[in-house]
Amino acid sequence: MNNNFGIVIRQARKEKGFSQRELAKRLQLDFTYLSKLENNRAEYAPKEDVIRAIARNLDLDEEELIFLAGRLPHQEESTLKEHYKQMPTLFRRMRENPDFAKRIFQEAERQE
User: Fold this and answer.
1) pLDDT tens-place string over residues 47-77
2) Which of 13, 16, 65, 81 has its CB surrounded by the most CB atoms within 10 Å?
3) Number of C-alpha atoms within 13 angstroms, CB side, residue 57?
4) What secondary structure does DSSP assign to 34-74, as a single string?
5) Domain of residue 24, CATH code
6) Residue 33 and residue 77: Cα distance in Å, rounded?
7) pLDDT tens per residue, range 69-100
8) Residue 21 Cα distances to 27, 62, 68, 70, angstroms
9) What is the mean pLDDT of the chain?
10) What domain range includes position 62?
């Protein structure tokens, strides 16, 4: 999966054969807003329910798309709040030490 929210949804929309207007109508969104999302020009990430609707209509993984949009799924908020003091350190270590980040992600994948 590409790591750009707009590109991912644009490519998936085109693969499904939808125009922006068709998909926007299915999502009950203004097509200009969908265009902004696809071109990464929206002022903020869409709400989780909009992202989930996009994912369902385009056969994309909902959780992955939520993270890609820069959002945190609601069910993950409690974990984040429970460990909020450690999060800055974790993200800083991952940013500064790519090998550490790689091990964290490999372990996460292994346990799924």
Assistant:
1) 999 999 999 999 999 999 999 999 988 888 8
2) 65
3) 23
4) HHHHHTT--SSPPPHHHHHHHHHHHT--HHHHHHHTT---G
5) 1.10.260.40
6) 27
7) 999 888 888 888 999 899 999 999 999 999 99
8) 10, 21, 23, 24
9) 93
10) 5-71
